[in-house]
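INTERNAL AUDIT FORM
Audit reference: QA-55
Scope: verify that the stored structure record matches its stored sequence.
Auditor: D.O.
Record contents follow.
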Amino acid sequence: MAFKPGDEIYPRDANGKYLYHKTDLCATWEALEECKDAGLVKSIGVSNFNRRQLELILKKPGLKYKPATNQVECHPYFTQPKLLEFSKQHDIVTVGYSPIGTCRDETWVNVSSPPLLEDPLLKAIGNKYSKTAAQVALRFNAQRGVVVIPKSFNPERIKENFQIFDFSLTDKEMKDIEALNKNVRYVELLMWSDHPEYPFKDEY
C-alpha cells in the first residue's frame, strides 16, 4: 500500500485522514527486479499479498523474477491454508509473522481473539514435550514449511524460540492444532482499510 511521497512515513491531512498514493504493484515489482539485477539484493519478495495481488505479479508481462517469499500473518489461530497451498504451487516461501500471536495493543491489534499462548491445547502438547506453548506454535508452522519470525526483546525467550528442532509433532497433533484455526487476524490494519490495495478484503 503506497502513501503520498514525502518525509512522513504515514502522512495525514489536517483532518487526520491518511494520504494515499496510487499503487502500481507491477511497476514497484519491476523496480525491485532492477535492484536484484544491480546486485543490491539477493532475493526479492512481498508482504501481506493476497492471491489476486500475487497473481498480478506472476502474470505480469516480462516477469524476470517471481517473489521468493510472501510475509503474512500465520499461526494456529490463523493458519492460511489456501494461501499456503497457492504459494507452494508457485514456489513462493511463506514467512509467518506473529507466529506466536502478538501484543495486545488495541490501537492496531484485534483483541477480540484470545491470546494464542494461553490456548489449553498448545499448553498440553507443550507439557508432553517439556516445551512452552510458544515453542509448540513455532514448531507447528516450521513443520508445515512456514518460515517463522517471532519477535522478542527478552534474551531467554529469544533462546527458547530457537529450541524447536529437538522434537516433532505427531500427525494427530498437527491436525489438532490446525483445527484451532479461527480464521481471524490479529493484525487487521483497519486504519488503512479504505486504501485501494488493502489486501484483507479477499478470502485469501
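Auditor finding: record pair retrieved intact. Residues 68-201 form a domain with the TIM Barrel fold (CATH 3.20.20.100).
Action required: none
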